[in-house]
Amino acid sequence: MSTDPVPTMSIWKPIHLGSDETSQEVNVSLAERNMLIGGEPGGGKSVALQLIVAHGALSMDCKLILIDGKRVELGLWADCAERFVGPSIDDAIDVMHGLQQIIDERTDILLQMKKRKVTPELGWPVYLVPIDEVAYFSATVGTSVQQKEFNASNRDVVARGRAPGIIAVEATQRPSADIIPTSLRDLFGYRWAFRCSTEASSDTILGHGWANMGYSATEIDPQARGVSWLRAEDGIPRRVKAAYLTDDQIIHMAAWAAQSRADQASGPNVIWLRRDGDAA
Ligand SMILES: Nc1ncnc2c1ncn2[C@@H]1O[C@H](COP(=O)(O)OP(=O)(O)OP(=O)(O)O)[C@@H](O)[C@H]1O
Ligand SMILES: [Mg+2]
Question: Quick check: CB of 195 below 6 Å from ligand 1?
């Protein structure tokens, strides 16, 4: 990825994620998709998530809702985000409820317009919702009532969010049923598996049966950070070395993106200030 942000970037365009074994660029469109990222500690999940956040931040047709229990992984992008949630389950639940409300409002308007989903022509911003270490909220902090509420609203956002323009990208070390309920896990169309220690873990991320067919993230050399199996557009896992953004690159891009967003908010023809319904 170039360090010079390109003003024409769009969340509807493919996102550069890395390169494959033949050094071909791997670019994946996340529009109308959700993605689950998993793998053992240090495998490269947060680095991978940064690539998606960077694309979203530089795309002026995208609003970022960042959720990061550790705060430091996505914190550099906080100034570009509509909401940045750190280690607070109350805030995480609040943001999920807000997204559910947006889904309801947008769905109402789409119905009135006799449309079934958001398209670029509508001019409505897409909400990108990256969650790093989702286990922190789903199974670690808070009471069981709070975790249940987070899981229920998260499931709703992932289930209903695609058509009204909400993209969830969630990372966790091992998305087993105690961390991500199976009913939620199955809703993620795209899967990105970094190194795992067992075939069962690898299958939990990529989907049942892939390890038996030779696609197992246990084969990845523990030293090969960023090497992964990505199951996206054609449904077949593809070996990918994720791209890497240095802190300096992230700081540079985040500053550009925050400034561009501020300029856009104060300029004419403001997509941000336009209510969804006015865009028709
Ligand atoms: N694509 C990559 N290219 C080069 N180095 C990488 C890549 N991905 C990860 N690394 C290296 O591995 C380190 C750990 O990566 P990362 O923080 O993304 O792991 P993680 O899977 O999020 O771990 P955790 O579960 O502990 O959060 C990075 O700080 C970086 O040094
Ligand atoms: Mg991480």
Answer: no
